[in-house]
């Protein structure tokens, strides 16, 4: 038996499945990255730093926030602290995925964690929960690598297109992020508990944002929604005395 061929086959299948899963993210990341590239140029970031931020930081919401803060002349420390708060939700996402990859070596865990975004988290969480057995690493890293490549490419297009389109908002590009989140959420909803939790968390996030808790709205609503969802599910599954 050709052991090498036997090993390559699951990897090939993993890459193929990963490409299928990441396609909706790619379709969203390119226009959103384009909008980021345009806004970063407006904020005064150089083309090199615009691309480096997508390579090193790789956090869509934080990159938009950072670009706006740079344009306002905010100090670098304030930029770092603000984006840190905006990304606190990654602690919750990492805690959710950790049980599935706990046997991985630390270098692999670091590479995986570096490329976890809201969108790749949604794909991985749904896939991990529905697929028994060990996680296919080729599939996981295909999703992560292709997603980041699409984001960087979109940012580069924004740098080039920024000379032609000074403001992406009239084109609706700034809505691409929200549209992609909605699509990923709908794909994960399978029962009435998830529908209720999604509506509750979304409504709470909007309410908190209107009250002025912009950066904390998502974190707080996620914790509250997840807690109520767990309690609700346990209450339904608990047998009557």
Write the layout of secondary structure elements.
Blueprint: H1 3-42, H2 47-56, H3 60-71, H4 76-86, H5 89-97, H6 106-114, H7 118-130, H8 137-161, H9 176-188, H10 192-210, H11 217-237
Helix pairs in contact: 1-3, 1-8, 1-9, 2-8, 3-4, 5-7, 7-9, 10-11
Task: Describe, in plain words, how this protein is organized in 3D.
The chain is an all-alpha fold and 241 residues long. Helix content is 76%, strand content 0%. It folds into 2 domains: 3-188, no CATH class; 191-241, no CATH class. It starts with a helix and ends with a helix.
Number of helices: 11
Whole-number total of structural domains: 2
Element pattern in H and E: HHHHHHHHHHH
Instruction: Bin the strand percentage.
Output: under 5%
Helix content: over 70%
The class by helix and strand makeup works out as mainly alpha
Summarize the structure.
With 241 residues, the chain is mainly alpha-helical.
What key attributes describe this structure?
mainly alpha; 2 domains; 241 residues; single chain; 11 helices; globular
